[in-house]
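Example record

Each entry pairs one chain with its bound ligand, beta-D-ribofuranose.
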Amino acid sequence: MPRKIIIDTDPGQDDAVAILLALASPEEMTVLGITAVAGNVPLPLTQKNARIVCELAGKVDVPVFAGCDAPIKRKLVTAEHVHGKTGLDGPPMADPVMPLQSQHAVDFIVETLRREPAGTVTLCPLGPLTNIAVAFQKAPDIVARVQEIVLMGGAYFEVGNITPAAEFNIYVDPEAAEIVFKSGVPLVVMPLDVTHKALTSKARVDAFRHLGTQVGDMVAAWTDFFERFDVAKYGSQGAPLHDPCVIAYLIKPDLFSGRHINVAIETHSDLTLGMTVADWWGVTDRPKNAMFMGGVDADGFYALLTERLARL
Ligand code: BDR
Ligand code: CA
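Structure tokens for the complex follow.
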């Protein structure tokens, strides 16, 4: 039986690839909806980009909702320096024709979790956790109904990317992250420790390009654009495709390895705001709340991505 999922996202080229991977994998998952949040770029762009990606995949029936346009109590921090002015910079894309749903993303999340049998809907956040946390605050009864949250965010050994101590998705809305990490919902976390081990390379991007499809060309072009930032920053050969790790986990969990540990979010210190304090070595007695991944079979990950994108 395919897992029912809601993708909560701030596209973002890597979010876009994650959405494509999900839409190409109906045996493993049914995408009930895509909820956009402010993050990499402001909300009007993330909700538009989500629809552009659905149209590219030819899946115009997937409902797309706009959610929160700012973090719970902070000013929005964006990442145009990574993703470009539109969030999906690369080849120019036409504006989407498919509609944006009129319902607020938070209400869609609440309503869906109340409607579907308890324990049958998985949330897949690929951006700041604002929509999820606001839904949990608004409707605490839904928390126990979530099957699992599989998210991209945080770092332990890699520490941070947007600040020396914090990863972008958690940093943008640390209060939301704290609500989610303390919610008691089973969490699977794909931190930078994993994504920085799944770098693009010429051969891996050429494999997308050689699919000979519009999707393959677009993913290759997005990756080329997105790569330049990390290549310049880290001096690496390629760049991490962060968000598709979440969807790859739903298809082939064995690609990833990690530890079930306590992860707490720093919400006070100016210096380390948004840090994911991960008790990897088990030195506290804080309760375990997350499966925190640390390893990935990168070749297997890229093989899966290429095989699935070929279907679109
Ligand atoms: C995360 O931040 C965003 O820029 C990416 O889309 C990813 O979700 C990586 O830190
Ligand atoms: Ca993202």
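The beta strands are 3-9, 29-36, 64-66, 121-125, 146-152, 187-190, 256-261, 263-265, 276-278, 290-296.
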